[in-house]
Specification:
The structure is a single chain. By secondary structure, the protein is mainly beta. It is built from 5 helices and 14 strands. The protein has a single domain, classed as Acyl-CoA thioesterase, double hotdog domain (Porin). The strands form 2 sheets. Strands 3, 4, 5, 6, 7, 8, 10, 11, 12, 13 and 14 form an 11-stranded antiparallel β-sheet that branches. The protein has a 3-stranded mixed β-sheet with strand order 2-1-9. A hairpin with a 5-residue loop joins strand 12 and strand 13. The radius of gyration is 18 Å and the shape is globular. 40% of the residues are buried.
């Protein structure tokens, strides 16, 4: 792993680096970066050996600034089979995002033969070529500042052409938190915000969709460095919709993501 990182650490404060940035504004972060940060803080607070993070719901109340960030975590419920934590991401005194995380104590079992199973197989990442999100978003002649979109490794399974559907693998070659290894939960949380990129629906001109939240549900944690993303955007004529994503590792399905989407700006721009 590279010595580079998305967040440097100063005491209880997390300092975003250029690698955590957004393609849309130089003063903002890509949503995957704070998602990975929140997963780190929730997992660190939980300290639950052998427990499964099963759901992470993040409400993105405001764009996340490229500024020093703090995270506070509290326990809402701690039982024998579930633990529910809540985290707030803030800059100075302003709350930027709120996350709720559900941990479940796993119980090994044998599924009956009639239980529904995911039978979708996607091309393994080792069989695919790497491309740049820069080229996908702005074309080979376009330019953009560095950020998470240029930091991740991207291997498309299908063409990513802004038609509301796509499949790809992503991997992160740097640490999310300075001095800390990326846990499987952190990688899944970071990947969960890329559904709206992989399944981006372009509405004409420079108009596309942005997401206001992330709801990640995990049946198990990903294994290995690659997370597969299979996404579909379902946008209504009201301008409100969802991106629905299935997450994979090289063994198969690991969970799903739902993101609430809306147009970036006024129609016709």
């Amino acid at each position: 792993m590279s010595d580079e990182t998305l967040f440097a650490v100063q005491g209880d404060t997390f300092i975003p680096t250029a690698l955590a940035g957004s393609p849309w504004h130089p003063a903002m972060l890509h949503g995957g970066a704070p998602a990975g940060l929140l997963a780190y803080c929730l997992e660190r607070e939980a300290r639950l050996e052998g427990w499964q993070p099963a759901k992470l719901a993040i409400d993105l109340l405001r764009p996340v600034p490229k500024a020093p960030l703090g995270v506070s975590v509290s326990t809402r419920r701690k039982g024998n089979r579930i633990v529910h934590l809540e985290a707030s991401l803030f800059s100075h005194d302003t709350v930027i995002a709120v996350a709720n995380c559900l941990f479940i104590k796993p119980q090994e079992l044998s599924l009956p033969a009639f239980a529904p199973r995911s039978n979708i197989e996607i091309t393994p990442p080792d069989d695919l070529e790497a491309v740049s999100f820069r080229d996908i978003l702005f074309g080979s002649g376009g330019s953009m500042p560095p950020g998470l979109h240029t930091t991740i490794q991207l291997r498309p399974v299908t063409a990513l052409c802004g038609q509301g559907r796509g499949t790809a693998w992503i991997a992160l070659p740097v640490a999310i938190i300075e001095g800390q290894s990326n846990s499987p939960f952190m990688l899944a949380a970071l990947a969960s915000d890329f559904g709206n990129g992989v399944g981006q629906l372009r509405l004409g001109g420079n108009l596309g969709t942005i997401n206001a939240d992330i709801v990640l549900q995990l049946s198990r944690l990903p294994e290995g460095e690659w997370v597969g993303i299979d996404s579909t955007a379902l946008l209504d004529a009201t301008g409100v919709g969802q991106v629905l994503t299935t997450l994979y590792d090289t063994r198969g399905r690991i969970g799903q993501v739902s993101q609430t989407i809306m147009p970036m700006g006024e129609p016709g721009v």
